[in-house]
Design goal:
The protein is α/β, with parallel strands linked by helices. It has 11 helices and 7 strands.
Length: about 260
């Protein structure tokens, strides 16, 4: 399973952009001490741990992810930070089974595009939240990892012209499509914000770490090892030639209220 084999790389990369977007997502909820939060497709736990800080020792946080290795990493981070109020369990967003009307808020950061049925998964999150609570879904926007993602695709297709480059987040990169998903899932007062920020690259190698620690890894794995190495070398050379010191990160932050 790609999620398991990539877990450590995802964890390393999350320091850069996943943690940033996760913290932003949680801050937009305005959580209070003592509240309970569900984090779906939690990965190594950046959003869940950000929520744990907000709700404090009297609150509770439940992180759910399909990959056992991701859950193990999240538990480790919780132990490191003393977030004993955060629990992590293996589970799928396609069959979410955490109880109804149990949480004050639910989050899903950079995971909803992996759902078999996006609207059904958002509706399941809604069902887990009490009336008046909030559901926050954060996705990659249309301008992500620019300009390096485009350069990666160009180099990868040169090596493998038949490569399927339709990555999952293309399903949810349109802000209005996301708004429609949340509204169709039964959420009210839906807010959708698309923001683009700069993610610094300290070295050219930072880009390849991002590529192997995100869904782009799937494309790399479909290349022959020697071809993947050539793509990496081409990307590194292009970064140096163009003096690239950052990539643009487009993020769509969505939030809705559960009807009372």
């Amino acid at each position: 399973m790609t999620y398991n084999t990539a877990a450590v790389d995802y964890d390393t990369t999350s320091v850069d952009f996943w943690s940033y977007a996760a913290t932003e997502t949680v801050q937009r909820l305005g959580l209070s001490a003592g509240q309970s939060v569900l984090d779906v497709a939690c990965g190594p736990g950046p959003a869940a741990l950000a929520a744990a800080q907000q709700v404090g020792a009297q609150g509770t946080v439940l992180g759910v992810d399909i990959a056992e290795e991701m859950i193990a990493l999240a538990r480790g981070h919780a132990a490191e930070t003393g977030a004993s109020q955060a629990e992590f369990v293996v589970g799928s967003m396609d069959a979410l089974d955490v109880g109804a009307d149990r949480f004050d808020a639910a989050t899903c950061v950079f995971g909803i595009f992996f759902a078999s049925d996006v609207r059904a998964s958002i509706a399941a999150m809604r069902d887990a939240v009490r009336p008046g609570g909030q559901v926050a879904v954060t996705s990659l926007g249309p301008k992500f990892f620019s300009p390096l993602y485009g350069q990666f695709i160009e180099a990868a297709l040169a090596e493998h012209p038949g490569l399927d480059v339709d990555v999952p987040w293309h399903r949810t990169e349109d802000a209005e499509v996301m708004r429609a998903h949340l509204e169709a899932a039964g959420l009210e007062q839906v807010e959708v914000v698309h923001e683009v920020s700069a993610l610094p690259l300290q070295t050219p190698q930072d880009w390849w770490r991002i590529a192997t620690g995100t869904g782009i890894r799937r494309l790399i794995m479909e290349l022959e090892p020697s071809a993947a190495e050539r793509v990496q070398e081409q990307n590194m050379a292009w970064i140096r030639e163009q003096n690239i010191d950052h990539v643009e990160l487009g993020v769509i932050y969505c939030r809705g209220i559960v009807a009372g």
